[in-house]
Amino acid sequence: MLRDKNLVPLSRQHQHALALCVRIERAMPIADAKLADWQAEITQQFEAEIKVHFAAEEQIVFPAARRFGELNPLIDELLADHQWLRGCFAKAEARQISSTELLAFARRLSEHIRKEERQLFERLQELMLQPELGSLGQQLDLALENASQVCSLPNPTK
User: Fold this and answer.
1) Does pTM top 0.85 for this prediction?
2) Hey, which end of the chain has fewer CB within 10 Å, N or C?
3) Omega before residue 29 within 30° of 0, cis
4) For 53-57, which contacts have Cβ atoms below 8 Å and span 24 or more sequence positions?
């Protein structure tokens, strides 16, 4: 299904995070000497975009989705993912994430994004009226204005 314009800003950020996940998976196995570079990049992306993204979902999208009881189990899963992923971001910031954990992080983040895109967003577009989606989009625009909208590009040194 074509993404509603009101959800496109979140989907665009999802693409940025998926690009990071793909790069991590392709770089495996990551040597210990390169781990600090990856951890720095993950921390930078979290601070620049993902932290604001998670907050927008938790404060705007998830409460709107909870109006539809069928989505509550999915929202609970997504919130649990956010908590787990925040733990990984914290480990990366502290430079304490291992190569194995880094791969698990990339896979879980990728799965999480696909759940949001394929299940949550698709269903919201079916359940919400266009004026509701428009209101959601306006709220998201305000919430996301502090995200830098970065897109990680491959670093040739990695």
Assistant:
1) yes
2) N
3) yes
4) 53/10, 53/13, 53/144, 53/147, 54/82, 54/85, 54/86, 55/143, 56/10, 56/140, 56/143, 56/144, 57/10, 57/82, 57/116
Domain that holds residue 94: 8-144
The arithmetic mean of pLDDT across residues 29-48, rounded, is 95
Token pair 């430079």 is at which residue?
95
Closest CA to 56 of 131, 145, 121: 145
Report whether 133 contacts 9 (CB < 8 A): no
Total domain count, the chain? 1
Is residue 155 domain-resident?
Answer: no
pLDDT in tens, 61-110: 999 999 999 999 999 999 999 999 999 999 999 999 999 999 999 999 99
